[in-house]
Each structure stands twice: as C-alpha cells, then as structure tokens.
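Hi C.,

You asked whether I'd gotten around to modeling the 130-residue construct. I have! Everything is below, sequence then structure, no commentary in between.
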Amino acid sequence: MSPQQDQTVRALLDAIVAKDMRAAAEVFAPDASYHVRAWEDPVIGTAAITAEFERQGGIFADFSYEILTAVSTDTMVFMERIDSMRIAGKPVSLHWASVVELDREGRITVMRDYYDTVELQNQLATTSAD
C-alpha cells in the first residue's frame, strides 16, 4: 500500500474521531463526490461534504475505527473497517467498507461507503432490557 494514500484515508478518519469535520473535508478535492451510501446519489463539493459530515457528527458520539484490511494502488484505496460509535446513547459497531479514489495530489475525488443498514437498525432497536 502506498503510504500517501493510506495517510489520506487515515487523516479523514482521524479528523472524524476528533469531530473536526472541516479537517475531514479538507482531504477531498474541491469537486469531489461522497456517496454516504454507495447506492445513493453523492454529495458533491467540499462545502456540501463538510455540511454532510457536520450532519453526521450531530448523530453520533465517540467515533472510533479499526482497520481490518486496506489495499491501495496509486489512485485507489479499498478499506474494510469496524466503525464504532454511540447513537442515541447506544453503542453501535458496524462492518464498513470504503472505496476511495484519489487524484495525483493525493486528495480524495470519489468516496463510496458500504455498510449494512440492517446491522445498524438491529443494533439501534435493542434496548438495555434485551
């Protein structure tokens, strides 16, 4: 894996851990697209990506991640992770995959996230009495 590509994606994730959503968006190219869910239309441009990260940051707390697998080329990073956070006070851990495309300067041009919405729903549906 190229250290530059790895560092770009880690910088994004570390900024989200720190809840610094502006820093998270700064690793994207100005006209980048971010698919919150790969099968939905993307958010386009760093201003819109910043706003999306801020929206998400209002939903979760205590975000952390564990990289399980990361593979890259000069222009792409594939990353499999376990993302953990608290949503509405409930602990949630999700299997997550991201496909990230980068430009020659190492900025993200496209990011597509994949996760199982049923896994999320099941964890949010549980109560402490379960």
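If it helps when you're writing up: Residues 3-17 form the longest helix (15 residues).

Thanks,
B.
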